[in-house]
Design goal:
By secondary structure, this protein is an alpha+beta fold. It contains seven helices and five strands. It has a five-stranded antiparallel beta sheet with strand order 1-2-3-4-5. The radius of gyration is 15 Å and the shape is globular.
Length: 171
């Protein structure tokens, strides 16, 4: 389950969201695209990172994960920290992608769980080899017809909260 959490954490990195899709179809496309990778081992990690960047809005996630730190540092320090965090985030994803992306939810279902002012939570649920799995994608609108993931929760554990706790211990 922790492996799936890390996978979806990393599934949130680029503002290159797909235009013209509804939030549900965006979420379905993102999930299915990530778990459908079938490249040879040498190319798998690189392809996984590129797919992840396609759907993930790292800037949006970064604001959620580092919001308390942003208040404690200068804009220049924040920019340096953000760049280092993004580099770490992608490296971690690349290193773990083989293990993380091989698990799949059988017959996933997609439903809008909650609509907030600045994002919508889409629930993806189904069965894995290890039992039931619930994943929440936090999706926001980048433009009128483009979306990006800004956070995710696996079985109720929110990714940005985990990072925010770590940052707050350091700063």
């Amino acid at each position: 389950m922790k492996n799936i959490t890390l996978f979806f954490l990393l599934l949130f990195i680029s503002t290159n969201a797909i235009a013209g899709e509804t939030i549900l179809s965006f979420s379905k496309s993102a999930y299915e695209s990530m778990v459908a990778l079938d490249a040879k081992e040498a190319e798998f990690s690189k392809q996984a990172v590129e797919k992840f960047k396609k759907y993930f809005d790292f800037d949006g996630f970064n604001l959620r994960a580092m919001r308390d730190v942003k208040k404690k540092v200068t804009p220049k320090q924040y920019a340096i920290l953000s760049e280092a965090f993004q580099e770490f985030f992608f490296l971690n994803f690349e290193l773990k992608s083989q293990r993380l992306l091989r698990k799949k939810i059988a017959k996933p279902t997609y439903a809008v769980k909650e609509v907030k002012t600045d994002f919508t939570i889409v629930k993806i649920s189904g069965e894995t080899d290890e039992g039931p799995m619930n994943i929440d994608f936090y999706v926001h609108s980048i433009t009128d017809d483009a979306y990006g993931m800004i956070d995710l929760a696996v079985d109720g554990v929110l990714l940005s909260r985990n990072y925010r706790s770590s940052f707050n211990r350091i700063y």
